[in-house]
Amino acid sequence: MMLFGPFAWLILLVLLATFVIQGWLQRTYARFSRVPNAKGLTGAETARLILDRYGLTQVRVEPVRGQLTDHYDPRTKTVRLSEGNYASPSLAALAVAAHEVGHALQDADDYVPMRVRAQLVPAAQIGSNLGPWLFIIGLMLQMTALATLGLYLFAAAAIFQLVTLPVEFNASSRALANLRKFELLAPNELPAARKVLTAAAMTYVAALAMSVAYLIQYAAILGVGRDD
Predict the structure, then answer these.
(1) Which keywords does this chain's UniProt record carry (predicted)?
(2) Is residue 3 part of a domain?
C-alpha cells in the first residue's frame, strides 16, 4: 500500500475513520457482552432456534476460536460462533448469532448479492494481495502495462467490498426481524442488538472506503506517470 501521492490525505482521513469505527465496535460489543438477555439464551441456542424455525436443521452451529471471528461457511453449511458468543447469554451474543444465521438464510434463499460475492472471492483475494505489488513494481520499472494490471486487480477487491455491503446489511436486517418475530429479545433489548449490528456493519463501510481511497490514489499516480 502507498501512503504517498496526490491523495495521501484522503487515505489518512479514511484510515483515521477506520480506527474510530473499529474502536466504536469494540466498545459497543464489550458493553453489551456484559449485559445478559432476559431469556438467558446463549448465542448457540439462538442460532439453533432460528435455523430450526426455518427448517434448516442440516445447518450446524459450531464454536470457533477468537473474538469476533463469527462467520457462516456456505461450503459446509455451518454457522461458526466465536467461543464467547457461542456460550454467552449476552445481548451482543444474540445479535451476532442472529446475524450469522441471516447469512445461512441468504444461502437457503439463493440471495443474489451473496452468490455474486462468492463468485468474486478468488478475484478479490488475488486483487488485494497481488494488485498493489504489481502496481508498485510497474511504477518502479516504468512498466505502465504492469502498473495498470495491478490497478485493475485491486479494483476487483474494491468491487468485492462493494458487493459485501448489501450482504451484510441484509443479514443484519434479517437478524433484527427474527429476534423480534420469535420474541428472542424483549422490545427494550432490541435497541442494544441494533447498536451492535450497526457498529459491525460500519466496519464494512470503512473497508470499502479504504479500498476506494487507495484505488483513487493508484489511478491518480498512474495518470501522473502517463503525463510524464
Answers:
(1) Membrane, Transmembrane, Transmembrane helix
(2) no
Please report whether residue 1 resides in a domain: no
Provide the residue-wise pLDDT of the chain in tens; the chain has 228 residues. Answer: 555 566 787 888 998 999 999 999 999 999 999 999 999 999 999 999 999 999 999 999 999 999 889 999 999 999 999 999 999 999 999 999 999 999 999 999 999 999 999 999 998 888 888 988 998 899 889 898 999 999 999 999 999 999 999 999 999 999 999 999 999 999 999 999 999 999 999 999 999 998 899 889 888 888 854 544
Of 178, 216, 222, the closest CA to residue 8 belongs to 216
Would you call 100 a catalytic residue per the annotation? yes
Q: Which of 45, 62, 83, 100 is catalytic?
A: 100
33 φ/ψ sector (left φ>0, alpha ψ -120 to 50, else beta): alpha
Give domain status of residue 2, yes or no.
Answer: no
C-alpha cell at 47: 442460532
Range of the domain at 76: 8-227
